[in-house]
Request: fold
Amino acid sequence: MSETHHEEVHRHPAPTGFIRKYIFSLDHKVIGIQYIMLALAAVMVGMLMSLLMRLNLSWPGTSWSILGTLFPTGAPGGVMNPEFYLSLVTMHGTIMVFFVLTTAPQGGFGNYFLPIQIGAEDMAFPVLNMMSFWVTLVGFIVILLAIFVEGNHALGEAFASLGPSWAGGSGTVGPIGGWTGYAPLSALGKIAGPGQGAGMNLWVISIAIFCVGSLLGALNFITTLLNMRTRGMSLMRMPLTCWAWFTTAVLALLSFPVLLGGGILLLLDRIAGTSFFIPGGLYVSGVLSGTNVNFPLHTGGSPILWQHLFWFFGHPEVYIAILPGMGATSHILATFARKPVFGYRAMVFAIFAIGLLGFFVWGHHMFISGMSPYSAIAFSVLTLSIGVPSAVKTFNWLGTLWGGRIRFTTAMLFALGFVSLFVAGGISGLILGQSSLDLPMHDTYIVPAHFHLVMGVASIFGMFAATYFWFPKMFGRFMNETIGRIHFWITFVGVYAIFMPMHVMGLQGMPRRYAQFTEYEFLKTLHPLVVFVSIAAIITITVQLLFYFNVFWSMFKGKPAGENPWEATTLEWNTTSPPPHDNFAGVLPTVYHGPYEFAVPGAPRDYVMQTDVDIEVPSGNGHNGHKH
Amino acid sequence: MGRVLAVIIWIVTLLSVLLFLSGKWWLPAAISNHAPALDRQFLITIIVVGLSFTAAQIGLGWMVWKYRDTGKANDRAIYSHGSNRLEVLWTVITAVVFIALGVMGQSVWASLRLNDAPPGSYSVEVVAQQFQWNFHYAGKDGKFGRTDPSLIDDGSLNFIGLDSNDPAAADDSTSAMLAIPVNRPVELRLRSKDVIHNFWVPQLRFKQDLVPGMEIKVHFTANKVGKYELACAELCGQLHFKMKSYMLVLPEDELNALLALPQDQFTARIAELRDKYQLPEYK
Amino acid sequence: MATMVTSTKPARKTSPGSGPKIPGPNGNGRKHDGDFRGPESQGNRYRIGMWVGLASVAMMFTSLSSAYIVRSASSNDWTPLPMPRVLLVSTVLILASSVTLEAARRKLRAGLSALYKRWLLLTVILGLAFLVAQLFAWRQLVRQGIYLASNPHSSFFYLLTGAHAVHLMGGLLGLLFLTLRWRRQTTEQTSIVKRKAATDAVTVYWHFMDALWIYL
Ligand code: HEA
Ligand code: HEA
Ligand code: CUA
Ligand SMILES: [Cu+2]
Reply:
C-alpha cells in the first residue's frame, strides 16, 4: 500500500539547484511564497500612493521637494497637480484590489496550504500553477510600467511612436479612470485629457494578463480540491479555509472571463477604432468625433455596457478578496479559542450563499448610472439579502468564542480585529444597498469608508492573521510577538481613525475622486476631519514598516517553532515546518476526524488532530464530520 | 490581554457612535419634496445598522473579556459544535430585518424613478462637458430648439450646438447656471458631450449620471428658494473636482421674468441673481 | 518512513488503513482505498480540469455574446454583413474534424492504437484546414472593404471568430501533444490510462469548440 504512495507521491522529484528550486519552482509552497512576496511588494507601492494622496488632500498646494525632482511634470516644484492625484487614486485602487487582495489570500496562502490541508502532495497541475504566478507577475510589471511611461517624458515619447493611442508622458503616475475605468473616458484615448494615453493601454493590458493568470490558478484550485483529497478527507471534514478557497476559485473562474472579454473590447475601442463603448456624435476637447486623426469616427457604442461587464466581475471580485480572509479567521478563532467552530455546516452554507448571491447584485454599483429603474429595485433587494449569510457568519464567529479559552496570540488579535472591522464595514453596505439611499450616498466618501473598512482593512487583517499564524509552518520560526502586538494595537486603532470619519464626510456630500476640496463651500467645513484622517493615515502607514521588518527578520532570526506550535488540529500541523517537498515525506496522512476537534471530553489533549486514530470523538452533536 | 482588547473595542465603538450622534456632520438641510421620506428611511436604517454594529462590537468585547484563557491547568473550553436552533433563529431574524429594510428602501426610489415627470412640469436640458455645465432653456414657447453636435462652436459660445435656423430655437437661451422654479415639478433632460458626468446637489438628495449617447429624463421638486452648489460626482477627468455650478431655486415670477429675456440680458440677469442669493449656512 | 510524517505522537497512528473507524471517502469519492492516487484518479484530474476550464471559456463567450446583444439593441448603426461563403466550408470542416476525433477516441478505447493514430492525424489536418478557411473568410471581407472598425457587426464578427480561432489553436496544440505522445510507445498501464484521459479531455474540448462555432 504505502509503496504505491511512495511511487505516486514522487511524481516530480525534489528539484536541486537554486533556479528550479526557488525561481521557476513547481512546488506549490514556493509558488505560494512567491505570491505573498508579490503582494508585499504591491501593497508597499499602494500604501505609498495612498500616503501621497492624503498629503495632497489635506495640505493642497504644499510643495514636497522630492516629488518635484521625481515627477517634474506631474508635481512641478513638488506641488501635485490634479491629474497626478487622480492617477494615484487609479493606481492605488487597481494595485490594491488586483495585485494585493487577489494574490496573497488565494495565490499565496491558498496555494501553500490548500494542498497540505487536504492531504495532497502538490497541486493537481504544478506547471499550470507556476505559469499562473509568472503570468500574474508579468501583469504587475506591466502596470508598474504605466507609472514610468506616463511619468517619464523620454519613455512617453518612445511609446508615442506605437500609435496615436500610445502617447505617454503626461506627467502622471499612470492612467486616470479610477480602478473601475469607466468608458468612454477610458476608451477615448489621449484626446480626453492627461493620463488617457499609453498608461491606460498598459492598464487594460495588465488587467487582461492578470485575468489569465487568475483563471489558471482557479482551474488548479478546483481540480485539486475535487480530485486530490486524501483518505478520510470527506468534504465535511475539510477546514473552512479550504471551503473558502474553493468558493473563491469558483467565483474567479466565472467572473474573470467576463472582465477579460470587457478588457479586450475596451482595448479594441482604444487602439483599433471600434465603437463598443463609445457612442456617436461625441465632441471632446474641441474636436468632433471623426473630424481629426486623433479622434476617429465612432457611432452607437454603449458606455453602460462596460459598467455591466466590469461590475459583473467587480462584485464577485470583492468577495474573492474577502472569502479567504473569512476562512482564515474561522480557522484561527477556533484554534486559539480552543473550541470547535460554532455551526460548521452553517458556515459552509453561508460561504456558498455569499458566493452565489454575489453574482446577482452587481447592479448595486449602477443605481444612478441610467440603467432601468426596475432592475435597480431587484438588485437592491438582492443586495440586502446578501447581508444575511454575512451576519450568520458573524454570529457563528461570536459563537465560536463563547465558552472558549481564548489565547491572545498576535494571529488571534488580528483575527478578532477582522470580525470587528468586517462588521464595521459590511454594515454600511446595508445603507448603500438601498436604491433610495444611494441617491445621496453614491460616489461620496461613505463609499470609500465602506469598502476600506471591509476590504481595505478587514480582508487585510485576515492576511495579517494568516501571516502571523502560518509563518512558523512556512519558515519553521515564530514571528516576533512583541513587535506583532505593537503592530496590531496601532493598526487596529489607526484604521478606525482613518476610515470612520470618511462616513460623515460622505453624509455631508463630499464626492470621491476629487483632487482638492477647496472649490466648494459645503466641503470647507470638513477640512479638520480631512487633516485628522491624513495624520491617522501617516501614523498607520509608518507602523506597517514594523510588519515588514518582523517578516524578514523572523525568517532568519525568529524563535524556532516545532511541528505544531499552536497545538492545532489540521493536517498542515501534521508535518515538519517547513514541510518537505512532497508535504508528507512519502506517506499521505489518513483523516479520522473533523477539522476542529478542540476540548473533546476525555481526550488526552485538549485538541484532537484529524489524524489521531485511537482517540474517540463523541459524534451526533450536530457536526457530521464523523458520520461515515 | 483579553481585557485590554475588550476595552479598546468598546472605546473605538463608543467614539464611532459619538461621531454620528454628535450631529456636527450630517446630511445638509434638505430642499426637495422627496427628501423627508428619504431622510426618514435613512434614519431608520442608520438606527438598525448602528444597533447591530454596537451589539456586535459589545458582544465581541464581552467574549474576549469573559472567555480569555486564565491559564488554569487542564481547564477546557466548552465542547460544542453549535446549535441548529440558534442558526435558524438568527438567520430568520436577520433575513426579516434586512429584507424589510431593503423593501422599505424602494419607496422613495419608486416614487422618483418609475414614473415620468407630471404634466406641467418645468423642463431644462442639461448638457455636461469636460469641465463645465450647460443649461438649455426652452423659453416662452416651451419648445427646445434642435441641437446637433456638428453645430457646436465654442468660439461663439454655442456649446450645445443649438441650430439657430430652427424657429423653436429663436427664444431659447443657454447658461452655465441652472435656474428652476420653487414648488413646481422640474424635469431635467440629461445629456453629455464627451464622458460620463454626474448631477449632484446635496440638498436635493438627488444624483444622476449624464451618459453620452443617452438622454436621461429625471424629475424632482425643489421647495426652498435659494442658491445651492451643484457638483459633478462622476470622475470625468483632470478637473473633475472643479466642475462646479450653481442651482438657483427662484420664485415663479422671478424665474419667468428671467426666461423672458433675450440671451445677452439673460446671462447678465442670472449673474445678478447668483449674487443676490446666499448659499445656505453650513455647520 | 511514516515516522517522518508525525512526530508529535507515535507514528503508527497515521499509517494508512489502521485504526478503528473506516476512513471516509478519498478525493475520488470512493470509500474503498482501491486506486487511491492510482492512474484512475490521475486520469480524472485531466477530465475535471477540462470541464472546469470549459466553464470559464463558456463564460467568456457568454459575456461577449451578451455584449453583442446589448450593443445591437443599443444602436441604429447595425449594418448586416455579407457572410463570406467560405464559412460554409469551414463549418463542414470543423464538423468533420469532430467526427474523426470521436472515432479516434473510440479506437483508443478499443485498444486499436494504429487506427487511433490515423484518425488523430486526420483531425489535426482538418483543424488546420479550418483555420485556413477562416483566414480566407477574413481576406474576403477585407477585400470588400469591411474592417474591424467598419461597423459594430463586423467588429463582433472579427472578434468572435478571432477568439474562437485562438481557442481552437489551443485545441490543436492539445492534439499535437497527443500525436507526439504516441511516439513514446508505452505499455505501462499508468500512462495508457493517462493517454485515455488526455484524449477524452481534448475530445471534449474539441467538441465544445465545434458547438461554439455552430452557435456563433
Ligand atoms: C471585500 C470587499 C467588499 C465586501 C465584503 C463588500 C460587502 C458589501 N457591499 Fe460593498 N463595495 C466594495 C467592497 C466590498 N463590499 C467596494 C470595493 C466598493 C466600491 C467600488 C467602487 O465604486 O470603487 C463597494 C461598493 C458597494 C456599493 C456601491 C456603492 C456606490 O457606489 O454607490 C454597495 C451598494 O449596495 C455595496 C454593498 C455591499 C453590501 C450590501 C455588502 C455585504 O456583503 C455586507 C454584508 C455584511 C454585513 C451586513 C455585516 C454583517 C454583520 C452584522 C449584520 C452584525 C449583526 C450582529 C449583531 C446584530 C449582533 N458595496
Ligand atoms: C486592499 C485595498 C485597499 C487598501 C489596503 C487601501 C489602503 C488605503 N487607502 Fe485606499 N482605496 C482602495 C483600496 C484600498 N485602499 C480602492 C479600491 C480605492 C478606490 C480607487 C478609485 O476610486 O478608483 C481606494 C481609494 C482610496 C481613497 C479615495 C481617493 C479618492 O476617492 O479621491 C483614499 C483617500 O484617502 C484612500 C486611502 C487609503 C489609505 C490611507 C490606506 C492606508 O494605506 C491604510 C493603511 C494600510 C494598511 C493597514 C494595509 C497594510 C497591509 C500590509 C502591510 C500587507 C498585508 C499583508 C499581506 C499582503 C501578507 N484610498
Ligand atoms: Cu464632470 Cu466629474
Ligand atoms: Cu458590490
